[in-house]
Amino acid sequence: MAFNIQQLEAFTAVVRHGSLGRAAAVLNVTQPALSRMVKRLEDDVGSPLFERHSKGMKLTDIGEALLPHANLVNRESRQAREDIDALRGLAKGTIRVGAVASIACFVLPMAIGGVLSAWPGLRIEVLEGVWDRLSEALTSYEIDVALGVDALDTDQIVAIRDCQWEDVSYVVASANHPLRGRSELRLEETCAEKWASLPRGTAPHAHLEQVFAEHGIGPPNIVVETRSITVLKSLVTDSGFLSWMAAPMYLAERRAGLVDALPITGVKAMRRLTAFRRRQGILPGPAVKLIEELRSMAKAKPRISALR
Q: Following DSSP, what letter does each residue of 245-264 receive, concatenated?
């Protein structure tokens, strides 16, 4: 059965807005015309898609089953139009990419610079966040490429295995933190200090706990958990907190003499970073250009871990 794209757009609009009247206003069509499009789609499917009642319209089980496919077809159709318009010079095209802070501070800016040198008409939209936020954005089509810590493939997300890098994480503190005056500093001596970290359930937090466990000690005294990298770095530079960061995250602060790794022998840990895409659907043309640049960079092996 071949579905009509206009009918699918009408169907998803009614789902989003909850009624024929509101959807018709957004689509700039009359309510009877929209109702006819939905009815034709129901005839093609062979079953009602909505339960109609006084407060609006609710999806039937058949409608629930159709919805993700309709969304996918609509997105792919819009992306095809955008790619074609970009090739014809009628539109710029947009790369929508998300990245964890470590990549957003080093690899991604380099990749963006390379892409825009070759394709100056493109636009870039960047989402920075921890992996749970990025994976949600990837599956909801908010972004088309996600750059994060290496992880297993899922039913919805797969890694692009030839786009990989490594970085190294350290215990960091302000330049004037009292622990810097101690000789032969040991990891356990940091446990009683105030710590700030990304929240539990995120990869950096798990990485931190793993390092402490490998040294046979319990987790440190984490007083503040925040998803804001700006807040995290401010707590380190201005309020005497310790934190666990990948080297690229605090490169600018290190160059300014504000933050650096504590001299704890043997306490650093390497991570593998990877590009991810949705398992289903076509990768948009602008995103393909970014992936090609990332592949080229991965072959050159930018030494994130050598920023120290």
A: EEGGGGHHHHHTTSEEE---
CATH number of the domain bearing residue 24: 1.10.10.10
* Polymer length in residues for the chain: 308
The verdict on 154 and 99 lying in the same domain is yes
Enclosing domain of residue 185: 166-270
Burial 6-42 (b: 16+ CB within 10 A, else e): ebbbbbbbbbebeebeebbeebebeeeebbebbeebb
Rounded CA separation 142/140 (Å): 6
SS3 label, residue 91: coil
Please check whether residues 62 and 127 belong to one and the same domain.
no
In tens digits, the chain (308 residues) has pLDDT values of 678 888 888 888 888 888 888 888 888 888 888 889 889 998 888 999 988 877 778 899 998 999 888 887 877 777 677 667 666 654 567 899 999 988 998 899 999 999 999 888 888 999 998 888 999 999 888 899 999 999 899 999 999 999 998 889 999 999 999 999 888 899 999 999 999 999 998 888 999 999 999 999 999 999 999 999 999 999 999 999 999 999 999 988 999 999 999 999 888 788 899 999 999 878 888 899 999 999 999 887 655 544 44
